[in-house]
Design goal:
single chain; 43 strands; 16% helix; 33% strand
């Protein structure tokens, strides 16, 4: 019996590995917390690259290795500023407490259930959590006092301390309350969703189950109403936050924002007091406010305006030790940079995130080329210094005191390093010796699976716009052999796929390539890392410019690699990538010959307010942008094979997008195929469906493009 060739075995087993590893994400250290003195690093990690259960780990600077603090099975954790007191969460919202200095298992917190968003005060003396829409506070175990409800919601559509779906998913604000540094009070957001439209999400595969009710504000409809309140941690008082120019009523306490400022995009409470950033409904203005905790009054610190939209930057605004406000700023050449007073980061350094401040030093993620993101140190008035590398990659990080965690994904995989000048308590305090800073570097093991099919990328700059692209060819390709082409883009706002790192999507692209395709991934206009004007090209029309870039990249790639067969071109994608794939065969059938469109938002008016109105405005005022960006009117133009895939439990891009597009195609007499995924959400991750879907796609595309795949 002939043994299975190694490549054939890799191709056979890769989909299951991809599914078991949840896209090669399990086993990765993540959710880092660095204590404010830099001595402790907390993080989550599962015990292997295929295990979904998490446990909490502690690394102490100067130690030989990290050590586990919990058994597997926790879902999240919160820590005080010194990373000494920790509370861990379990499924069902039960909690347990531990002290990182004391050996032993976490102690369950009795009487606490269904706790959401638990968060320890910086001093570690109190724990807050939200239950039934109300923030509660309890003293650290061993201290006196029962669970105290600080403020109760006024109705079933009101919640204190939790963000609404748009704030969490599109603005990126996960927090709904913020502790004062001394633990005496909290800044709490109140969210009223009573005016937000309802959607009912059922499971057609289980008709005996009742549908779930979702609050989902589609473009042009009412948003949640948010206000801010300063709440004493002992329950002694609540103060509403109001702008000086408007103190109207409408619900308990005065609104914190002027009428035109709809969104609470960020907030916090640092050594200089509480603050908040608010954004107008049209997203062209963002105002940052200082809040007086004594009376709830607010005064402007800064205001940013943009004729297109003010982009929100993770981690910003933030204040330095001296109180200097650090804000995102579009520089004269279009660079997305930072401003701190009169100082700005240099042109050409595209800032992606602020990780934190150390005194007057700002630690940030940025890059001079969109294919790489590094961690930098910038002191306003000076030149930024790159802290990550050497070598290419995409880096994330966490900072606390003199300690920096660098999580870098490069071409060969992931490396997580902890660099610190913090002294070890065991070396200093225990011995009674003076503290001495000793630079130390440690590696935290990442247990991610190594893909059975390793990417073999060829990085390209394509066409007149120097589009960044990556080409994957079969490892056994003989030059001169013609290859059908498969485009596999995302191509949308906020996410770039073309990076110099071993990503999961690069491994998937190589897997398709080994089946006989030349796979091309291209980041076109609208993707991050090339400045504000590059992103503004999608304003008013979500589809025309990104599609043109995919066509241009394809033609330029064929010039660079003549083996690409432009007579057989397919395209596949998910979410915005699925939208791009469906749009490609509808609008450019002369170029694209087959498409797999997964979770495609075909009707932009069905998507949510903050995301869609950023690019297209109010559909009642500017309907032409929504028509130009919709796929429904293009249905009669279909003459190529099209497979629509959608999870029927998708809360983000409703399955209604797929159903409406399919109905329009059917009405126009255009044959197409539909693959519904019962029970699947927006991401098909970590389930057997993920493996089966990969296999189905490669077979379907093989048939459509005349490729005899290896399965």
């Amino acid at each position: 019996m002939t043994p299975t060739p190694p490549l054939q075995a890799q191709l056979r087993d890769f989909p299951e590995q991809f599914a078991r590893s949840a896209r090669f994400s399990r086993g990765r250290p993540h959710a880092f917390t660095v204590s404010d003195d830099g001595r402790r690093v907390l993080f989550l990690r599962s015990v292997s690259g295929t295990d979904a259960t998490l446990r909490l780990w502690l690394y102490e600077t100067g130690a030989a290795a990290e050590r586990p603090l919990t058994e597997p099975g926790i879902t999240a954790y919160t820590a005080d500023a010194r990373a000494r007191h920790v509370v861990v969460s379990f499924p069902g919202g039960t909690l347990a407490a531990l002290d990182t200095r004391v050996p032993g298992a976490p102690r369950p917190l009795p009487g606490i259930r269904e706790a959401r968003a638990p968060r320890l005060a910086p001093d570690g003396e109190r724990l807050a959590f939200v239950r039934d829409g109300a923030p509660h506070v309890v003293r650290w175990p061993g201290r006196e006092g029962a669970v105290l409800c600080l403020i109760a919601p006024e109705g079933p559509d009101v919640a204190y301390g939790l963000p609404d779906v748009v704030t969490r998913g599109e603005i990126g604000r996960e927090e709904g309350y913020w502790w004062a540094p001394d633990g005496s009070a909290l800044l709490v957001a109140r969210t009223d969703e009573s005016a937000v439209a309802r959607r009912w999400l059922g499971d057609p595969a289980r008709p005996e189950r009742p549908p779930r009710v979702l609050r989902y504000p589609a473009a042009g409809t009412a948003n949640a109403v948010t206000s801010l309140h300063v709440v004493a941690a002992d329950g002694s008082g609540v103060r509403a936050v109001a702008l000086p120019e408007r103190a109207g009523a409408g619900h308990p306490g005065a609104p914190w924002q002027a009428a035109e400022f709809t969104y609470l995009t960020a907030a916090g409470w640092d050594a200089h007091g509480p603050w908040a950033s608010v954004q107008t409904r049209d997203q062209r203005s963002v105002r940052t406010l200082a809040i007086d905790p004594a009376d709830g009054s607010a005064c402007p610190l800064a205001e940013e305006h943009d004729p297109y939209w003010v982009a929100l930057l993770p981690g910003a605004p933030v204040r330095t030790g001296a109180g200097v406000l650090v804000l995102p700023r579009v520089l004269a050449d279009g660079t997305r940079g930072l401003a701190a007073g009169a100082a700005t980061t240099p042109e050409g350094l595209q800032v992606r995130e602020v990780l934190g401040v150390r005194g007057e030093e700002v630690v940030l993620r940025a890059g001079t080329d969109p294919t790489e993101v590094h961690v930098w140190s910038w002191t306003p008035g000076g030149a930024p210094v790159c802290l990550s590398g050497p070598g290419p990659g995409v880096y994330e990080g966490a900072v606390g005191g003199p300690t920096l965690v660098l999580d870098g994904l490069g071409p060969e995989g992931r490396t997580v390093r902890v660099t610190s000048e913090a002294d070890s308590e065991a070396d200093s305090e225990a011995a009674g010796a003076p503290r001495v800073a000793r630079p130390r570097t440690a590696v935290l093991p990442s247990l991610e699976e190594t893909p059975l099919v390793l990417p073999r990328p060829r990085h390209l700059r394509l066409g007149a716009r120097a589009l960044r692209g990556t080409l994957f060819l079969p490892s056994r390709h003989a030059p001169g052999t013609r290859l059908p082409v498969l485009l596999s883009p995302y191509g949308g706002y906020g996410l770039g796929l073309v990076v110099r790192a071993r990503t999961w999507w690069a491994a998937v692209a190589q897997w398709f390539a080994e089946h006989g395709f030349a796979v091309l991934i291209t980041d076109g206009r609208g993707t991050p890392g090339r400045g504000a004007p590059w992103e503004y090209a999608i304003h008013g029309d979500r589809l025309t410019a990104p599609l043109a870039d995919q066509v241009d990249a394809l033609r330029a790639a064929a010039e660079a690699c003549p083996d690409l067969d432009l007579g057989r071109v397919g395209i596949r994608g998910w979410s915005y990538g699925g939208y791009l794939a469906a749009g490609a065969v509808l609008r450019h059938p002369e170029t694209f010959h087959a498409a797999v469109a997964g979770a495609a938002p075909a009707d932009r008016a069905l998507y949510n307010t903050h995301w869609e109105e950023r690019f297209l405005g109010d559909p009642a005022v500017l309907p032409e942008g929504y028509r130009a960006s919709s796929l429904l009117d293009d249905a009669p133009r279909l003459r190529r094979p099209l497979l629509l895939v959608h999870g029927l439990a998708d809360e983000n891009v409703s399955a209604a997008h797929m159903l409406r597009l399919s109905a329009a195609l059917l009405a126009a007499g255009r044959p197409h195929e539909v693959l519904p995924l019962p029970g699947a959400g927006h991401g098909v991750v970590g389930t057997p469906v993920a493996a089966a879907l990969l296999r189905h796609e490669v077979r379907w595309l093989g048939r459509a493009l005349g490729v005899r795949t290896r399965e």
